[in-house]
Specification:
Rossmann fold; single chain; Arc Repressor Mutant, subunit A; alpha/beta; 8 helices; binds calcium ion
Length: 219
């Protein structure tokens, strides 16, 4: 899953990006509203974390413009006591908001909830045959036994499992699993896929030649 953080406070931007990376997300950052809108329109992010008070273009206006072309889930960050900002945020098309200063665990939980909602999944657990994916704990188990996956392998399994039954192109996977600073070696996806097959079973991920990868909903 790939997240965009739009925040003009440099320390907060850096710490949010680091926390999200540690939680397994691919993360891009933007330091003002114009850069944020440019990136938000360019990539199909899974969630955008959007500060309300931003230079060049405030969060409300950024969101109003973005909503003309994209329905990306947006979590707005607003200042304490700024009721008007929260009203504007929701009326501009924000899916949720959080008041600064916020608790990091709550922020991460709200992002997971937004991603689940946009995938129309109420449940945090996804079952694929004998493999279970707990998207809240970010743990994968097979026949009840926890399987050790790297952060990137987990991200790949989760993305394909959320879209089970759909063929996902390599381009789409690169866009959702890697951020703009990742070196995209062309064979990297194949390496991750073969490692996942070794851990979860050869048939867990199907290769559709020329199209991409797929996890069958009911293998
Ligand atoms: Ca700000």
């Amino acid at each position: 899953m790939r997240v965009l953080v739009v925040e003009d406070e440099p320390d907060l931007l850096a710490s949010l990006m680091q926390a999200l990376r540690e939680d397994g997300y691919a993360v891009d950052g933007a330091a003002d509203g114009e850069e944020g809108l440019f990136k938000a329109e360019q990539f199909d992010y899974d969630t955008i974390l959007l500060d309300y008070m931003l230079p060049k273009l405030d969060g409300g206006e950024l969101l109003r413009r973005l909503r003309k072309s994209r329905q990306t889930p947006v979590l707005m960050l607003t200042a304490r006591d700024a009721v008007r900002d929260r009203v504007t945020a929701l009326d501009s098309g924000a899916d949720d908001y959080l008041v600064k200063p916020f608790d990091l665990d709550e922020l991460l939980a709200r992002i997971r909830a937004l991603i689940r909602r946009s995938a129309r999944r109420g449940d945090t657990r996804i079952d694929i045959g004998d493999v279970a994916i707990d998207t809240a704990a970010r743990v994968v188990s097979k026949e009840g036994e926890t399987v050790a996956l790297t952060a990137r392998e987990y991200a790949l399994v989760e993305y394909l499992a959320v879209h089970a039954g759909t063929v996902i192109s390599r381009t789409q996977l690169y866009e959702h699993l890697f951020d703009e600073n990742d070196a995209t070696l062309s064979n990297l996806l194949d390496v991750h896929v073969s490692n996942i097959r070794r851990k979860l079973g050869a048939s867990f991920i199907t290769t559709r030649r020329g199209h991409g990868y797929c996890i069958e909903a009911n293998p």
